[in-house]
Amino acid sequence: MKLLEERIRKDGIVVDNEILKVDRFLNHQMDINLFVEMGKEWARLFGPENVTKILTIEASGIGIACVAAEQFNCPVIFAKKTKTRNIAGEVYSTEVKSFTHGTVNQVIVSKQFLKPGDKVLLIDDFLANGAALEGLVDLVRQSGAELVGAGIAVEKAFQPGGDRIRSLGVRVESLARVKSMDNEHIEFC
Amino acid sequence: MKLLEERIRKDGIVVDNEILKVDRFLNHQMDINLFVEMGKEWARLFGPENVTKILTIEASGIGIACVAAEQFNCPVIFAKKTKTRNIAGEVYSTEVKSFTHGTVNQVIVSKQFLKPGDKVLLIDDFLANGAALEGLVDLVRQSGAELVGAGIAVEKAFQPGGDRIRSLGVRVESLARVKSMDNEHIEFC
Question: What is the pTM of this model?
Answer without folding.
Answer: 0.95
